[in-house]
Write a structure and sequence with these properties.
121 residues, mainly beta, 2 helices
């Protein structure tokens, strides 16, 4: 799972295995260890929401996805889900959740579990 944060936008990219795990188990988490602090991030399915939602608490970013949508995501062809959330501070926070495609350029990153890039066909 990759996250990219820029300004008021947060983007999560999941491999095939991660999308399958999310669909079957209702959650997927990863972390980055900074030594004395561990930063956690993940995606969870929530039956009480109808749009993407995000929270940041206790050194963790958790993106929530509607449960029914998430359960079906692995078996469908939908690539991206997005939503613009109005925060309690009044700003717009753009959320993007997508299937991770293989890169078009050379990279040293392991991409063996990424979705085939349609531009390579």
């Amino acid at each position: 799972m990759k996250i990219r944060i820029k300004g008021d936008s947060v983007r999560f990219r999941l491999t095939q295995t991660e999308v399958k795990s999310l669909s079957e188990n209702g959650k997927i988490f990863d972390s980055t260890n900074f030594g004395s602090i561990k930063f956690n991030y993940g995606v969870v399915l929530n039956s009480d929401i109808d749009q993407l939602h995000i929270s940041y608490e206790k050194n963790a970013i958790v993106l929530e996805m509607p449960k029914k949508t998430g359960e079906e995501w692995f078996s469908n062809d939908i690539i991206t889900y997005d939503h613009t959330l109005k925060t309690s501070s009044g700003n717009d926070l753009y959320l993007l959740l997508e299937k991770d495609f293989t890169c078009l350029d050379n990279t040293i990153e392991d991409q063996s579990d990424n979705y085939p890039n349609p531009k390579l066909s």
